[in-house]
Design brief:
Helix content: over 70%
Largest sheet: 2 strands, antiparallel
Structural class: mainly alpha
Length: 495
């Protein structure tokens, strides 16, 4: 039985318009946008922070490659869990407050990793860094709550795109820091950026004026976390454990069963962690499925491009470039996203956010198809990086706009957090599948297993195919969708 209250459990804090105006005018709106975009950049930077030292981690941490893989896996798992949960907490207790908590958690994690060479502590620190993923959807929701209507689309386009910008812009910085100093400096740098971001958010971003009534869904949170951990561990570690090994199957199947139980439970309580009826609305569902495809296409390049550029010319698979030079060639991905943001905002106002996803999907398909069916040169990878950046920039800009036009304002934090989760599922899946494709095509060169040229071509075909699937899904998203109505009275300011 579903209680009638189930459909009317949420509401916005709209009482006291004078109070809201006072809060939102503490700082110029342009400064609020800049600070939240910076917060998003430093958040996404956490995912590429250890890329320059990933191959050296077994030696640096005195462990096996299988064990040091947890340095990356822990971040991905924590990110996937953090996004929807922090979104719901932001809706309930104040979005800025949760942003500051996530930022503080990341700073502490960075300091832990910066002051140790013990594998377990580095994994803990990296997991704490991964919680930063929730900052981007919360920032988007803050923008919706505080900005003037004519600035929202452009601001959201910029902030949402930072989920991809950090990878492109941060990798050269990480590579440079690694080349000139000790690897611990990477984490000290992350802590410093986190501290700066924390101060800026405190000084510039106004307290939240909208929140949701109700109790936090602890049981739903536990079920979602357990289910996601099981599925993501099976996906990310299946190649090492064996895809049909007992550990992989038990975690994967068990995680799916727990997620099904979570969905059943969420539909039968009055105050769920995520409103699955809102999440199942056609525009929201299709946008989230598209997010998986977009995340997959983005991360396929992040995995394949650096390897292709750095492998030796003699192997027949690469171009023999240094990590720093390779990162500079890939950096246009992030730069293009920054340039795309204001264009995406204007296009959204003129043609609607659905068009952004269509343009983005086409750009990704062109980029990977060009690499798959040509004897790629360095300039082609550079051009593909530009096109991928364009595709991700348009796609990531359009997704939150579609979602926020389809859900109540009190659901923006949780709904954007769910979208971030689907993006993370795409990137996690890409990291695993691309690794499997390249490993299966590898051959021995100078005593080392090296991915073949055919392996890279298959990777690019796969990325183009997934991007095409995302484009098809986009075409079924309705051009217009009215958000659900708010039905509850107001609550006082959440702070």
């Amino acid at each position: 039985h579903i209680s009638p209250a189930r459909h009317t459990r949420r509401h916005d804090t709209v009482r006291g318009g004078d109070n809201r105006k006072r809060l939102t005018r503490k700082a110029p709106q342009s400064l609020i946008i800049a600070v939240l975009a910076f917060a998003g950049l430093t958040s996404s930077f956490m995912f590429t922070l250890v890329v320059p030292i990933q191959a050296e981690l077994p030696e640096l941490l005195n462990s096996t490659r299988e064990n040091t893989a947890w340095v990356v896996t822990s971040t991905l798992v924590a990110a996937a869990i953090s996004a929807p949960i922090s979104g719901r907490l932001g809706d309930m207790y104040g979005k800025r407050r949760i942003v500051l908590i996530l930022r503080l958690t990341s700073i502490i994690g960075s300091l832990i990793a910066a002051n140790t060479s013990e594998l377990a502590l580095v994994i803990v620190g990296r997991a704490m860094q991964g919680t930063m993923t929730g900052v981007v959807p919360l920032g988007i929701s803050i923008l919706r709550d505080t900005l003037h209507q004519n600035r929202i689309d452009t601001a959201i386009a910029l902030t949402s795109s930072t989920m991809g910008m950090g990878a492109g812009l941060g990798m050269p910085l990480s590579a440079y820091v690694t080349e000139i100093g000790d690897w611990h400096m990477l984490f000290l740098m992350a802590a410093g950026l986190g501290a700066l971001c924390f101060v800026l958010v405190v000084l510039v971003v106004p307290p939240s004026t909208l929140r949701t009534e109700g109790k936090f869904d602890y049981i739903g949170t536990a079920l979602l976390s357990i289910g996601l951990v099981g599925v993501l561990l099976a996906v990310s570690r299946g190649n090492d454990w064996g895809w049909f090994g007992p550990m992989t199957l038990s975690l994967g199947i068990g995680g799916i069963l727990v997620l099904l139980a979570w969905g059943w439970y969420e539909l039968r309580i009055d105050e769920p962690l995520l409103d699955l009826r809102v999440a199942s609305r056609r525009p929201v569902l299709l946008t989230n499925l598209t997010a998986i495809c977009t995340g997959f296409a983005m991360f396929s390049g992040n995995v394949a491009f650096p390897q292709r550029l750095q492998l030796s010319v003699e192997s027949g698979s690469g171009f023999g470039l240094s990590l720093f030079v390779s990162a500079l060639i890939i950096m246009p991905t992030g730069i293009v996203m920054m340039v795309i943001a204001p264009i995406a905002g204007r296009l959204s106002n003129l043609l609607g956010p659905r068009v952004l996803l269509i343009v983005g999907g086409c750009a990704q398909i062109i980029a990977y198809t060009m690499l798959a069916f040509s004897s790629a040169h360095v300039w082609q990878i550079f051009l593909a990086s530009v096109l991928v950046g364009m595709g991700i920039g348009f796609s990531f800009a359009g997704m939150p706009m579609i979602i926020m036009r389809s859900v109540p304002q009190s659901d923006t934090g949780a709904s954007n957090g769910l979208n971030a989760l689907f993006r993370a599922l795409g990137t996690s899946t890409a990291a695993t599948i691309v690794a499997v494709v390249l490993a299966s095509s590898a051959f021995e060169h100078n005593g080392v297993q090296v991915p073949s040229l055919a392996g890279f071509e298959i990777t690019f075909i796969l990325a183009a195919s997934v991007a095409a699937l995302g484009l098809i899904l986009t075409l079924f998203i309705p051009r217009r969708s009215a958000p659900l109505e708010e039905t509850h009275p107001a609550l006082p300011n959440a702070g």
